[in-house]
Amino acid sequence: MSEFFSIHPDNPQARLLRQAVHIIKNGGLVVYPTDSGYALGCQLGDKAALKRIRSLRHLDESHNLTLVCRDLSDLGTYAQVNNTVFRILKAFTPGPYTFILNATTEVPRLMLHPKRRTLGLRVPDNPIALALLEALEGPLMSTTLKLPGAEAPLSEPGAIQDLLGKHVDLIIDGGNCSFEPTTVVDLLGPLPKVIRVGKGDPKPFE
Predict the structure, then answer these.
(1) For the domain 3-205, what is the CATH code?
(2) Mind listing the pLDDT tens digit for each residue in 135-191?
(3) What are the boundaries of each domain within the chain?
(4) How many alpha carbons lie under 13 Å from residue 198 in its C-beta half-sphere?
């Protein structure tokens, strides 16, 4: 069975965060809360854990995973960001948006689209997620916790434990979350393009 940590949504306990980081750095797969629902995550570059994520979600290699970062400096490390893109990121992060960008060489090939060096990046507006990323001192390879055949992402920690307790290494209970996914914005072209409408307001990009 997985570990189950109840972490305070506003003042995350440092002791539990350290334990969570230990699990992640030792190949663990974690369920954690964000500002747009719960997500599955693992350490950047962990091939075995990433394979488990793809298996649980039934995702093929063409599905872009998201790199969840703690701040804009992390985004600049893993994505190619010009001045225009930086201004957009600064205005809308942290928040319930995922931005499609060209990846830098810092991003392992295993999490990129096989034909394009692109990926989704985001900074969540959630104290637990940000504290976890800060303690980890790096990003998480991540995807929305939406199981195959489900109409919406999982949003209730008890239900997550019932369904995934034998399939993940840690579930972080941060209370019930929104079940709306992020709004996805493609920043690869000359103008932003909304790919998916979710919790984030799409109007600024239309």
Answers:
(1) 3.90.870.10
(2) 999 999 999 998 888 887 888 899 999 999 999 999 999 988 877 889 999 999 999
(3) 3-205
(4) 21
